[in-house]
């Protein structure tokens, strides 16, 4: 693994929002095919780190490299080409509620489709077969023409994953993909993400509040505490004491 080019590399990255330091001096490398869990309490900087990785936020200090390119030095066209290889499932899913499932899934093509093709597809859906295949992979092919807001939370989560699958990225980033799901559904979604990553040798970076799922479904855990890395290790090396430290409240 040490011989391949990292999918992501952060070199002494800090992220300020006004006076507030969301991330401080982060250096790390993520290699192809790794399944990485970002863990840490609310506000630790997990979502910010994911947004730096997909280039939707530019770091205030340090360098973020993705697929061998320094993101801050790319023009918007080149940045979009890199972003095409990175599929992100956001915490809020970013689905359009009143559209049919197929249109939300087809939004995964938007980085590649022309404006007119995207518009035409809103009237008569294009690439139906690809959408059916992606929905089959997430187990809800029969929901193709259902209105998205008529689906359960777990089904909507699957639509968001299917949208990333039609994009066919090298990397999947998922921000709290099981935050609002019950334990059984959480396991199903985590199994699904793990399988989708393994099948196509995709890299997966997922932020999780549930440390047990991080242990069972990922091969590396990065613990973030107040914007800094507290640990970066294989699950079996992350002791209960480290986890206690990770979630320990700061004394003021
Ligand atoms: N655009 C922004 N402007 C100002 N502050 C921000 C912005 N984005 C994030 N922050 C702040 O940065 C800190 C880290 O936020 P972030 O969303 O990365 O944490 P998180 O670990 O993902 O939390 P959660 O688990 O609750 O999603 C928080 O204090 C948040 O308020």
Automatic annotation (TrEMBL):
Pfam families: ABC_tran. This is Phosphonate ABC transporter ATP-binding protein. InterPro entries: AAA+_ATPase, ABC_transporter-like_ATP-bd, ABC_transporter-like_CS, ABC_transpr_PhnC, MetN_ABC_transporter-like, P-loop_NTPase. The lineage of its organism: Bacteria, Bacillati, Cyanobacteriota, Cyanophyceae, Leptolyngbyales. GO terms for cellular component: membrane. It comes from Phormidesmis priestleyi ULC007. GO terms for molecular function: ABC-type phosphonate transporter activity; ATP binding; ATP hydrolysis activity. CDD domains: ABC_PhnC_transporter. Residues 8-251 form the ABC transporter domain. Keywords: ATP-binding, Cell membrane, Membrane, Nucleotide-binding, Phosphonate transport, Translocase, Transport.
